[in-house]
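User: Small ask, check this?
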Amino acid sequence: TDRESTMKKIFLHSKKTKHIWCGHPWVFPKAIAKMEGKPNTGELVSVYDDKDRCIGVGVFNHHSLYQVRMLAYSHESFQQDNLESIIDYRLRHAKQLREHLNLPNQNTTAYRFCNSEGDGLSGLTIDIYHDIAVVSSSAFWVEINKELIQKFLKTTFHFERIIWCSQEKSLKQDGWQDQLEKSNDDFSCVVLEESIAYQINFQHIQKTGLFLDQRENHLRIASLCHGKRVLDLYSYTGGFALHAAKAG
């Protein structure tokens, strides 16, 4: 195929292939038996097992413990020979999944749109607050493709405002050495999570602002709380305490 002829190849040791075939998103350095060519950090590579079968496509990083972050698999029927088509497919699929989960809705206007490895884009997390997209970048390949990702969020998904949050510690571990831009978004908005209102000031946020990946846990705790006293320890935004209070 065109992909096989143009991409550099990574071959895995026989004992290190099973979990990658099963969908594990990271290839560690010791799993690599050999490479054809010398891929650059941030470059797409084809990943093969020890029997010369193509497992899929990932992005290479010689600085990182995650030597290859898998972004696509050979059994998937979409164009995988360039990063633009992979990002497009993954984000469209993520949007479709949230629509099936009825997100957003009149009671919940803040939700996780792209959940890194959970949506096939390791190192990229996107949270939505009404029409604002807050991006958490924790991988080298995400940071160098900032403009491409922002373009998709604006033109394909029509988010009016994008806030880019570079995760300095994670990026440094991934080999990033350049200066990171600091966000100066001094504004706030009010969003809903299951009818509980939160006011978010984007100049003083941790990661993307709210722990939106805890939404279902908040609901589970709330279902157990009626008529009880609850102590919420180590609270950042009060998610568990507010849901407990609302539940009585």
